[in-house]
Amino acid sequence: MRYILAVFFCFCQYTCYAVRPFITDDARIVGWRLAQYETWLRFDKHAWQHWNMAAYGPSKKLELALGFVHGVQIHTNDEKDYSYAIPLVQAKYLIKEYTPNKLPGIAVVAGSFLPGGNGSFKAPGYGGFAYVAITQCFGKTENVLIHANVGANHVKYPTFEHNVVTWGIGTQIKTIGGLHLIGEVFSGDPYVPGSGMSFQTGFRHIVNNYVQLDLTIGQGLSGTHILPLWYGGGVRLVTDYFEKRKSRNHHKHL
Hints:
Blueprint: H1 2-11, E1 35-43, E2 47-56, E3 62-74, E4 80-96, E5 105-118, E6 126-138, E7 144-156, E8 161-174, E9 179-189, E10 192-206, E11 212-220, E12 230-239, H2 241-252
Antiparallel strand pairs: 1-2, 1-12, 2-3, 3-4, 4-5, 5-6, 6-7, 7-8, 8-9, 9-10, 10-11, 11-12
C-alpha cells in the first residue's frame, strides 16, 4: 500500500472528488487517459469491509472500472470469517458535463458484481445494476453540488430472481478551505442489493490536489433488511501517468 500511494503522489496533478464511501454517484468521469484509485473502509456490527476500485478513462466520455471487496464477516455467535468478492466491473458514460450555475450534468452507469470469491461477501449468482446520475452545481468554485441517482438492480440467484429500484439524493457543501459537508438519503446500494432506505452524512476534506479524505457515518431507516449503524472512510487518488507516457512515446516516434 505504501508503494501504491507513493506512485500516485508522484504523478497526481488533478484535484480529486471522491464519491465512495458515499452511495449516490456524481455525473463526472475520471477523464481521458487519466486513472484513479479509490479505497474505502466500512465498519458495522455485522462486517468489516475494505473496498478497492481502479478506473481508467479510455476516451473523453467513458470510464471503465474494476474492483473488489474483502474483509471480515461477524456472525451472531461472535465468530469471524474472512470473506472476499471479485470482480466488480463497471462502465460509466458521460452524456453531458455539468458547469456552475447552468443545466445539470448527466451520466449513465452499468455494471455487475460477478460471482467470484469466498464466504458471505461472494455473490451467490449473477446480477447487474444500471442507473442515471445527475449533478447540479451552484457557485463558480463548486460551492454546492447536488447529486441524484435513479436506477435498478437485477439479481438472478439459484434460489430466487429479484428486481429492485434504487435511488439516491446527496449534497456536498463547501465550508472553510478544503472542508466540505456531505449528506445523502438513498434506497438500495447498486453494489450490494437488498438494502432499504438509509442515510449517510460526514465530511470531505480536500487536503490538496493530491489527497482527499472522506469520513462518514450512516444508518438504515426502513426496509425488509434495515442496515445497522456504520462508519466509513475513504481516499481517492488520480494520476495522469498514462497520459504523460502516451505523450512521451508519441514524441519519441516523431
